[in-house]
Amino acid sequence: MYKFRAKTHIGITVNVKGGHVHITFTELTGGGSIYTTESKEIAEALRKHHKFGKLFTEEEVKEETVEQKQEEQAAAVTRAQQAVKEFACVEDAKEYMADTFGISRSKLRTRCDIEKQAAGRGITIQWADKKAEIPVADDAAPQQEEAPGEQEEQAPESAE
Length: 160
Known about the structure:
single chain, 4-stranded antiparallel sheet
């Protein structure tokens, strides 16, 4: 793959195998433009263009090797094994998600936001302060008996 970058949005015409080919660089949000191609002929024609080195330049493209792909797969397996994370507070979870996955902290405002982002990455978040609620049967719950003197008097006094 060949990658060319310009400081402005450009379109140029190059000669390829006796014909003319119009190349339009794709505009980038941060400014400038970029063009990528798999064609060796187009890359050579761009390098021979009279504005090459002045108006646009070529960037080095890093190709992934088999070893890099295997390392990435091993890292993915490790991440999958660590799929359940427990946090004491929102700030700890927010810091972990931002540092580990590069998620903007503004997208991690609430527990719900953090859980959604984590779920999208195969992680389940457990909160330390959320205790498992154990249902208690009504007859097993301790009942307080009222003392005889504590009963409320609700009978109206009759006036004669």
